[in-house]
Every structure is written in structure tokens, then in C-alpha cells.
Amino acid sequence: MEKSLPPIPAKRYFTIGEVGELCDVKPHVLRYWEQEFTQLRPVKRRGNRRYYQHHEVLMIRRISDLLYSQGFTISGARNQLQELAQSQRDGRKNAQLNGQEMEGMESENGPDLDTAVSAADSSHALTAGDYPIHQLQGKMQNALRNELLEIRELLSV
After folding, report:
1. Is 51 found in the same domain as 79?
2. How far is residue 15 from each of residues 3, 11, 22, 28, 49, measured CA to CA in Å?
3. CA–CA dist 115, 1 (Å, integer)
């Protein structure tokens, strides 16, 4: 019998009592979790009052789910959150690499990737080991962008 949590209101800061109600966790548990999970760092203002932001409320819900629904220990939940954070960092790093390649990476890093893109377009199969995937994706995005620009020019005439 899973209890449904209320929606999180569109506010900038939440008191510890509000977070307790939004996440169905008592305030003393939230204070303990601050010690155990370094990701939880509420802003402290006058009189050491804690004010949580939206992303922290979401994280508390995630911690609660890991501990109470999925049965993780504190250290297991901490490891899960660290793995999640690492995968998000890796994803952002890959996105940055792809963005840099689109801005001007040419085929100086090995085989001619323009040829690879042409081969992919003409339905020649490329194996995953032929080219690093992030280089291939960047070149394909460049080729697609160039083709769309050509189409736009043709339509504007």
C-alpha cells in the first residue's frame, strides 16, 4: 500500500517542516540525512533555520524511495546516488564533447569521417569499432546541419 506524495509547489525555498510533509519524512530524519548524504546542503538562515530548494526536495524523495521502498541501507543508497551523479556527469561530458566537435572538429583524428558519413548515408554498414562513436555522431550532425542549410537555401529562392 504505497502512499502517494503531494506535488511539489512552485516555490524557491521550503522549510524543514514543509519538506517533511512533501516527502513524508520527519524533520529529525532530514537532519540526520544531511550528515549521511553530502548532496543535501540546505541553506541555513537566521537562527540556523534550514531552507531546502526544489532539487533537494527531489533528492530527499529519491533517498526515501531507496531506503524505504527499495530496501537499501544508508551506505547502499549513498552509493546509488553517487553512481547516478557520476552517470549524469559522464552524460554532460559526452554532450560537451559532441558540441565541440560540431563547432569545427575535422577529420584529423584518424580515418576520414566525412567518408564514413557518406558511407552511412549510402547504406553501407559501419561497425561500431570502425570509428569512435562520439566522432561519428558529431560528423553526422554536421552533415545533417549542412544538408538542412542547403535545403533552406533552395526553398528561399
Report:
1. yes
2. 22, 11, 11, 13, 8
3. 58
- Cell 519538506 locates to 19
What is the grid cell recorded at 79?
552509493
| Start-to-end C-alpha separation, the chain | 64
CB 63 within 8 A of CB 37: yes
Cα–Cα separations (whole angstroms), residue 69 to 73, 119, 136? 11, 49, 41
Residue 6 belongs to some domain of the structure: no
**Residue pLDDT, tens place only, 50-63:** 999 999 999 999 99
pLDDT surpassing 60 at residue 1: no
Query: How far is C-alpha 86 from the chain's CA centre?
Result: 9
Query: Do 52 and 60 form a contact (C-beta atoms < 8 A)?
Result: yes
Q: What is the pTM of this model?
A: 0.58
3-state SS of 22-68 is: HHCCCHHHHHHHHHHCCCCCCEEEHHHEEEECHHHHHHHHHHHHHHH
Residue 121 falls inside a structural domain: yes
Q: Regarding predicted confidence, which is higher, 113 or 51?
A: 51
